[in-house]
Amino acid sequence: xxxxxSRKVLLIYNPASGNGLFKSKLDExxxxxxxxxxxxxxxxxxxxxxxxxxxxxxxxxxxxxxIVAGGDGTINVVVNAMLNAGKNLPxxxxxxxxxxxxxxxxxxxxxxxxxxxxxxxxxxxxxDLGMANDKYFINVAAMGFMVDVSQKTDPELKNTLGQxxxxxxxAEEVTKIRPLTVRLTSEEYTGEEKMYFMVVMxxxxxxGFKQVGGSSRIDDxxxxxxxxxxxxxxxxPTLLLSILQGNHVENKHVLNFKTKRVLIESDDDFGTDVxxxxxPRLPLEIKVLPGKLKVATWADGTEPPRW
Length: 307
Fold this sequence. Notes:
Blueprint: H1 2-5, E1 8-13, H2 26-35, E2 39-44, H3 48-57, E3 65-70, H4 72-84, E4 91-95, H5 101-105, H6 112-120, E5 124-132, E6 135-137, E7 140-144, H7 145-152, H8 155-161, H9 163-173, E8 180-185, E9 190-201, E10 223-229, H10 236-245, E11 254-259, E12 261-265, E13 272-274, E14 277-278, E15 284-296
Parallel strand pairs: 1-2, 1-3, 3-4
Antiparallel strand pairs: 5-6, 5-15, 7-9, 7-13, 8-9, 8-12, 9-10, 10-11, 12-15, 13-14
Helix pairs in contact: 3-4, 7-9, 8-9
């Protein structure tokens, strides 16, 4: 029985993520794991309270690792449930959502057999996590215009069109954009800014913009604060192009610095989120937690172990 327990993995999957195709491949995935000597316990991630309850009741020696199939939001829910329950199992990711920025950072493959190979392997990268007040995040804390766009985008449209849905919604909303006043307090920078939106990056990409984090690293013990200042709306397309090209940090309308901790305050009322999940309203104290989590990643030239 102890030998079987050491080969169990907990698979938490979001049946609604992306286009919902993952659940139709579930039996194939279980078969591939069993061929490698691992036994899968699948759980639907359609109820946050159920995920929280599961982590409250399992022990760390009961499962070899946790595998999350879904987008960044699903990973966020699982990581928060796990760490809040005092557990810290290694994490593997199956990119199956609309936003897979976290998986993109590690170049996790999208072919099922390749995903299983990575998840079955024992090659891990130790990463930092961010924390916004009392909520963990893996990739990004965001606030302002882009958050409002994301929260207003129809979920069915996101599943059908993917990242294009965000861009279409953004084009609709851009004429309504207004500057927001925020106060930033950190060791590296303290001041008041008028901004359109802002991200605090642990990873590198957000909302399909692959280089928005610039030189951000997920294992350097720092967060990257990137604030997009108020500007003439006619300058917006140029800024968006520079974001796509990854050279926006040189733009005069962008404030960028690295920090371990930043306090964000405002008298304005606007949306915030972490990894696409709703976050408490301001003020937010955002800090980095170095080396907090182990993530299964591909080891070049190696094969996953077979038991």
